Amino acid sequence: MINVGIIGATGYVGEELVGLLLKHPQVKLTNISSRSSSGELFYDLSPRFKGTITLTCDKPDIKKICAKSDLVFLALPHTASMDFVPQLLKAGKRVIDLSADYRIKETAVYEKFYAVKHKDKLNIKDAVYGLPEIYKAKIKTAKLIANPGCYPTVSILSVAPLVATGIADIKSIIIDAKSGVTGAGKKLAEGLLFSEVNEDFKAYKVNVHQHGPEIDQEISKLAGKKIHATFVPHLLPVNRGILATCYIKKTQGSKGKAGDILSLYKKFYKDGPFVRIRKPGDFPRLKDVVYTNFCDIGIQEDGESVIVIAAIDNLLKGAAGQAVQNMNIMYKFPEEAALL
Ligand SMILES: NC(=O)c1ccc[n+]([C@@H]2O[C@H](COP(=O)([O-])OP(=O)(O)OC[C@H]3O[C@@H](n4cnc5c(N)ncnc54)[C@H](OP(=O)(O)O)[C@@H]3O)[C@@H](O)[C@H]2O)c1
Questions:
Q1: Residue 339 domain-assigned?
Q2: Which of 11, 109, 277, 291 has the smallest count of CB within 10 Å of its CB?
């Protein structure tokens, strides 16, 4: 049994973490914090938890958090996490950070896309990118997990088998992704009002989104070559879920037989209990994955190209679910604990 805390428990991701950790048989959720809700009972803020949790939200106080936790989840906006991580690590705690603060290895790239100076460069190099399907071995011993972004999770899982095996023509990768509105967090913004989003659909941050360099970093590592994928995010008028359609040209000489690519994906994810590969001609929809930790992938070969369609729940496989999956691997709990 481990004692666990959440800083930022009142956000969309924090709330999902509370729900998952409460049903985890080997975890005791001992402390939750947020600045604006300190002193309030968590179930008063989120009445769906009435009868399942008696904790009150505290102000984030590192000493108190450390005294009550073996592991701390940070469900904070980027830039806020790097204020907490150095002190938690110094106190010997293991940390799973759901923000972007430790995902990008090149500080200059982080600073360009997030428009802030990084305050904890020292810990970036030891942070393990928490995508279990690729980094399970490193996650087992990690002190600090940089939990992947939601768009990067679905995008990397979509193209990884083709990139890692040299089948993808690395100049031709196009990721066309659509996310529900919870992807932007709870902050108030005119563009996220119901009346702005409902019955509408639009692209935004076309090829300049901050998740672009995160995707490029990870698929470049898999390929052993620098890759820049074309990444276009869209805002869907739904609460949760991301569906990505990826277009990839095959390299010369890697055409193979029809069905080879499907077998490749099945083999690549054979140890990934949360990746489900669809049979030929079958493609995921959001309804198949929302409220689950699964990433469902459908594949269509088209002569010299492959079209990969993948779907996840942005708050689960794209955030809190993946974070709990990482915790399970770090503490040798069953990988699926609290997630099925
Ligand atoms: N939403 C998604 O689908 C998704 C997916 C993947 C990753 N993420 C990442 O996960 C993190 C949390 O996302 P979210 O959507 O849950 O955000 P959110 O809904 O805006 O929640 C943020 C939480 O952090 C607290 N907080 C904000 N600033 C803080 C500070 N300076 N110090 C301490 N606490 C602070 C907030 O409460 P108070 O303001 O009361 O302190 C709240 O509890 C973000 O980094 C986000 O990029 C989100």
A1: no
A2: 291
Give the distance (Å) from ligand 1 centre to CA of residue 323.
Answer: 14
Is residue 125 a part of any domain in this protein? yes
pLDDT-derived band at 339 (thresholds 50, 70, 90) equals: very high
Same domain, 78 and 190: no
The 10s digit of each residue's pLDDT in 24-52 is: 999 999 999 999 999 999 999 999 999 99
Q: In this predicted model, what pLDDT tens digit does every residue of 118-157 receive, in sequence order?
A: 999 999 999 999 999 999 999 999 999 999 999 999 999 9
Q: Are 72 and 90 in contact (CB under 8 A)?
A: no
Tokens representing 29?
Answer: 């959720």
Mutating to test ligand 1, I would choose from 7, 13, 16 the residue with most ligand atoms within 8 A of its C-beta, which is 13
**Domain assignment of residue 335, yes or no:** no
Residues with a catalytic annotation lie at 150
122 & 165 share domain: no
CA distance 332 to 94: 14
d(CA 281, CA 301): 10
Do residue 294 and residue 162 come from a single domain? yes
Which strands sit side by side in the sheet containing 242-249, from one edge to the other? 202-203, 230-235, 174-179, 242-249, 305-312, 295-302, 275-277
Residue 115 sits in a domain whose CATH number is 3.40.50.720
The CATH number of the domain where 174 resides is what? 3.30.360.10
CA-derived radius of gyration, the chain: 20
Which residue range is the domain that position 115 belongs to?
Answer: 2-147+319-330
Q: Taking the complete model, does pTM exceed 0.85, yes or no?
A: yes
11 in ligand 1 pocket by Cβ < 6 Å?
yes
Asked if residues 252 and 280 have their Cβ atoms less than 8 Å apart, the reply is: no
- The answer to whether residue 163 is domain-embedded is yes
